[in-house]
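ARCHIVE CARD
Drawer: 12
Card no.: 0347
Subject: one protein chain, sequence and derived structure
Cross-reference: see card 0346
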Amino acid sequence: MEDSKEEFKKKGLGIAAISNDSVDVLRSFSQRKHLRVPLLSDPDSKIIRAFGILNDTVQPGQFGYGIPFPGSYWVDRRGIVVSKFFEEDYRERYAMGTVYTQLFGSPLNTRETVVQNERLTLKYFSTADSAAAGNRLTLIADITLKRKMHVYAPEVRGYKGIEWKLADSPHFSQAPPNYPRARSLYLRAIKETVPVYENTFRIVQDIDLSGNYRQMKQALGDSDLLLIEGELKYQACDDKICYLPQTVPLKWTIRLIEPDRERVPERLRRK
């Protein structure tokens, strides 16, 4: 959140976090982490209950009772919820870069890779370059085809549709890729109407990092970098020629953020 606040500010939005921790605990954490994002205290979980996000998997009297399900809301000036971002599993949460991209369609200063050839320009990136275990990231590819070019949509029959595919990994789970709606195009050369993409379009895919930082770090050895690999397959055509199918390798590097293991001062701990 701290790294994202300036980008949200440019869109006229502020960022704040709310928890059931006391003011003293939040002040201690904020000072220790040098945060400027407001941390709001809701010690009796009144606001948390009002939003209906009290974690009901923790029973009253047990440690952790009163903690909300992790998620993000976009609330307008009238107090109306415009958008919300929550996971079913309370151990997972959307990275702020993912929230920003879903709201505004552009990355939060993340690394971009650009591939160009005579048929298209491909720009791909992740919504965050650094993430903690349990975060949800979105991998994005923006594709711009040259003039008069098209590629077949995945649902095409009898031709090679575009295909985005990630390699399997024990370090994350992946949702199916999300392709845009195709346009029906009549091609005189083959006398058929087929689903295609033209001009500029975007493919996105969500991944959920493993919730166990220790296991991920052990598997990666001395490195704190998680490599995500995939490929984009397509066949570009113009109004007369279909060119040879192409495969573009895709690669993202995500730095794992170690969880904060430092405890608050003993005098501030819950009894």
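Annotation on reverse: The chain has a mean pLDDT of 85. The domain at 112-257 is CATH 2.60.40.1250 (Immunoglobulin-like).
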